[in-house]
Amino acid sequence: MSFRKLRTFIFPVAIIAIIFAFSSATADSKSASKGDTVKLMDLFGDVFDKIKRDYVEDVSDKDLIEAAINGMLSSLDPHSSYMNEKAFDEMKIQTKGEFGGLGIEVTMENGLVKVVSPIDDTPAFAAGIKTGDYISRIDGEAVMGTTLAEAVEKMRGKPGTSIKLTVLREGASDPMEFNIKRDIIKIKSIRANREGDTAYIRITSFSEQTSQSLEKELSRLMGEIGSENFKGVVLDLRNNPGGLLDQAIDVSDLFLDKGEIVSTGGRVADSNKKYSATPGEMLNGKPIVVLINGGSASASEIVSGALQDHKRAIIIGTRSFGKGSVQTIIPLSTSKGAMRLTTSRYFTPSGRSIQAEGIEPDIWVEQSKLESLEGKKLATEASLHKHLANSAANSSAKNEKDAMMKRQKELYASDYQLARAIDMLRGMSIYGSSLNGK
Fold first, then answer.
1. In sequence order, which ranges of 245-375 are alpha helices (DSSP H)?
2. Active site residue: 114, 130, 286, 323, which one?
3. What is the per-residue burial (b if ≥16 Cβ within 10 Å, else e) of 223-259?
4. 346, β-bridge pairs
């Protein structure tokens, strides 16, 4: 293929992408002449022609061009990439909450695939893949030298087929091998249950129905608990890799009555926006505790940052992932694919950019296991022979309180962070009630 023909093909895709991404040129690029650009395109055409003529194996024009486009985008940052028609269709399915694969959110770091978080109740989660793991090999083939899109495509496959991942984990002296069977990943983004007098809401990802499902589940739990007994909400965003920006805004809006939720800023005018809460919030001022960790990214950080800045919630856990950039999906009619391009950074209401910094919790709580030290039990009045009974005791209330205490002990053994969050929530409720004279 001659460079003349090649240029007519590349310009609609590659050059438009360059113009879009760098429409407000830097000082260096301003000094570059059109002639310099033409020379660079000549260089590209020269390399292309030599590959087509001399490479040891025949490579299709489509593969070369798509690889060149993806290389251009992925060189910008870990989150910009090119999606061909197949990948674009899969992405659209994924945002609806169902897709095929292993169930992990990943990024590229130091040439390896880094796990942002495994998704609850998926093959990767069940196999023991953890936040912070580095995938170094996929079915024995090295990840180093591949793009994120290529690595993700290798991990996708027909449900029921198996894949072997070689994982490097901090603290482990040797690589770890995981054999995982692929499955259809159906994400239920909201998991909700009652923890005594509190509502526990876990958001696993921000997909199209997240805010609507959250509102429905929270209303149900508040009705079950009753307005007099309801102490507040634990919002669990641990290992939540993010998702749709509009859903993060809508979720925040459920708990805020006014004020800014998030703002975005970039080089293109359309990327500079502010999003604010609408009047009314679901909890009528009841306290909120938000749980985060190193797997809480993107949309999770928008929600926790907004609630933290407005002092609407106490943030408990460990520092979040630190993904403070916004990606725009731009369809490309010439290929029926799309490019995912980082177009702006987002800022919390106080103006913080958490890019590469993360959300610092108000109370730092590491996940750990609390073991009870069962020593010699001390005598109490109730253990004394012929002690007077408490005739005023409300057996129903006592049984309910005993059940709550038993459940809390179980949580301290199985999920220390959640147990601390519930304790904090109940303490905030008691303190708030005393201030109001109740």
1. 245-255, 299-309
2. 323
3. eebeeeebbbbbbbbbbbbbbbbebbbbbbbbbbeee
4. 264
Cβ atoms within 10 Å of 411's Cβ, excluding its own: 20
Reference 338, options 25, 90, 8; nearest CA is: 90
Q: Measuring CA to CA, how many Å separate 133 from each of 21, 108, 116, 294?
A: 31, 11, 8, 12
3-state SS assignment for residue 57: coil
Summarised one tens digit per residue, pLDDT across range 153-202 is 899 888 899 999 999 999 999 999 999 999 988 778 999 999 999 999 99
- DSSP-based three-state secondary structure for 29: helix
- Radius of gyration of the CA atoms of the chain, in A: 26
Kindly state the DSSP code that residue 243 receives in the 8-state scheme: B
Please measure the distance between the N-terminal and C-terminal CA atoms of the chain and give it in whole angstroms.
82
Residue 81 designated active-site:
no
Catalytic residue, candidates 309, 320, 325, 344: 309
Q: Residue 274's beta-bridge partner residues?
A: 263
- Taking only the tens place, the pLDDT of each residue in 23-43 is 444 445 555 567 888 899 999
What predicted TM-score, i.e. pTM, was given to this entire model?
Answer: 0.78
Residue 309 catalytic?
Answer: yes
The SS3 of residue 69 is helix
Distance CA 409, CA 372 (A): 9
* Token pair 């030298």 in the structure block, residue: 145
User: Known catalytic residue: 298?
Assistant: yes
d(CA 170, CA 224): 43
| Token couple for 257 | 């009555």
CA–CA gap between residue 278 and residue 254 (Å, rounded)? 9
In DSSP terms, which residues pair with 181 in a beta bridge?
162
Sign of CA dihedral 277, 281, 282, 285: positive
- The span from the CA of 320 to the CA of 197, in Å, is 28
Options 80, 117, 296, 298, the catalytic residue: 298
pLDDT digits (tens, 9 = 90+) for 50-109: 999 999 999 999 999 999 999 999 999 989 999 989 888 877 876 666 667 899 989 888
Greatest Cα pair distance, the chain, in angstroms, is 103
